[in-house]
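Lecture 7, part B: from sequences to assemblies.

Below are the input chains for today's worked example.
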Amino acid sequence: MDISEVTPEFRCGYATIIGRPNVGKSTLLNMIIGQKLSITSRKPQTTQRRLLGIKSGSDYQVIYTDTPGMQSKYKDAINRYMRREIISSLSHNDVVVFMVESLKWTVADEEILETIADTKIPVLLLVNKIDKTKDKEKLLPYIQKLSERRKFADLIPVSARNSINLVEVENTIKTFLPLGPAEFPIEQITDKSERFIIAEFIREKLIRKLGKELPYRITVTIEKFAREPEGVTIHAIIWVESTSQKSIVIGKDGGMLKSVGEQARKDIKVLLDCNVYLRTWVKVKKNWTDDEAALKQFGFEN
Ligand code: GDP
Ligand code: MG
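Predicted structure of the full complex, as structure tokens:
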């Protein structure tokens, strides 16, 4: 039975989470959905592609999008792609969740505020990482200042990682949804395939281990995904831009690649709930981040 058929008051709609890199968007999405879908790290530009996270209850379904962060210092194809994603996400949503960080305001936050200046969609402002703000008295003037910048539908201080005020966030989001039936089956939590999420888990381990610039130069594809009685066999390729990057990813005596594989395997095991046999290779595709055809080949399409 479709739950939306029995509740005339059912609400369903779209919420997009925007904010500068590293502010905590993917963490928020994972906490709301209650499962790791979107990968996170301390480095900017962890999220390369848009992902839907779907949260359903007895009388609602919220379809969240976690947008990749754009960085103005890069002007190449992958960044143009990310910018298009943010702009297009503004047009077909019922609420925009704009996340900023407690007591920290940067040029990137300013750019996003400008990008959404003319949007007619209600904007909910979340001030994240309040757990890091020891001096709580400073929070109020910061919030006050922000509220003078534009009309926000609501403003909630949160800690995504520590799950502070997230119930309030969800309840507020629900009020902006139109009446209507669920768009996705209520047990579905994402639009992405297991292959996609697995590739992301591998990329997350690489990002967390590698230096600052390299993560942005790496993408992962899954060449084989086979369910067998004894478990799942996965073959993954890690794509880099040069042979020097390749040797960094492989590491001394293959140590880096080995530990990436071991850690990714743990996450994949939790996701699939079965034995996982994971093999990884590193391959070079010169200049892929500024090559529209290569981006398509790796599944970046908008
Ligand atoms: P995104 O780039 O906006 O998607 O940010 P991520 O979700 O990847 O988070 C970036 C970093 O901030 C990660 O290391 C998170 O663990 C951390 N983070 C997220 N939310 C909080 C929070 O509420 N408090 C603190 N202290 N750290 C957080
Ligand atoms: Mg992210």
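Note for the exam: The first strand starts at residue 11 and ends at 18. Keep this in mind when comparing with the next example.
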